[in-house]
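Sanity check

After download, print the first record. It should look like this:
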Amino acid sequence: MNKSKLDSQLNAYRVEIDALDTQLIELLAARQKVTAKIGKVKREHSMPIYVPEREASMLEIRRKLADELGVSGDLVEDLLRRMMRDSYYSQHANYAKTNPAIKKVVVVGGGGALGKVFVNLFTNSDYAVEVMEQAQWPNRAALLANADLVLMAVPINQTVDLIKALPTLPKHCILADVTSVKQQPLDAMMQVHSGPVLGLHPMFGPDAPGMIKQVVVVCHGREQQSYQWLIQQMQVWGANIHETQASVHDNAMAFIQVMRHFNTFVYGQHLQQENPDLSELIAFSSPIYRLELAMVGRLFAQAPALYADIIFNNADNVALLSRFHARFGEAIELLKSGDKEAFIARFEAVETWFGDYAKQCLVDSKQMLLKADDGHLLRKPV
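Expected structure tokens:
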């Protein structure tokens, strides 16, 4: 086939593809209109935006249909998840209000990154929200005198001191915090306020567009029935609520946050001091290594004081990190000895500890790597 004829044939197919893509976009627009209607109904009946059972059922049915039509189930699921995520957030303005009796919500630190997330969520549910920053602190007694909910969204190193400096709150007022440590703030709130108290830890950063599919840890303090509406409100916003004790939370955070952040800090510092060519590292990396490198870079694109507060907050963190340091040293000695059999034995011991979760991680990470391979992590540093 000569080039002219080949070009003509390809152009005809491309025109057909363009027409089909146009139809897809038109269908997406029609779907978006329907999801907006669903959001309105959910708001009217105080229903959560995200319903995991409905999502799981829909994906299962669509994957089965895709298989019957000879289309990749993974492709269809990927497309549907992206569409559903967009539809969830397009319903932001349609969040239900679970407690119309609440007249005033005050977010202390509402001008900060995480504070703004809560201010926006409460506002989108038609609550009257006031923000208290440092400039308003001297007038806190007057500003908090008729509050129904006071939410402390201030830096970790200031949380307990600011809680202790709160004025006497109305007896019915709910006092809560969103700090990443829980025992000390919860104890402080219980001491200064005789009314409803609870500790919250949103397990997401301020760059998250909302709470949909995000975990929020709840540590109960006092009068749970009085703040149950707040838990329900977060569920309406799409949050997955995990209830636990403050001490259990803080112990888990030492592994989830402190160890990971500190390990990433040391790795980043090592890279900086070894000074390899970052562009070459990216060019040589497969999707999984680009993703890992991106997570390191992500840490250093954020406020260092935040991570310093998390890591330095608890003296017990030193002991945990020291044990990690000792085990790292043991692994180096194992490497020096050249004992591969001992390495494999230790590897298999960790594999046994992870159990079936390791296999699930293999499946889940494959999905993440497919997205990482789409090209957005291929950009070279500027």
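If your output differs, re-run the checksum step. Summary of this record's structure: The chain has 15 helices and seven strands.
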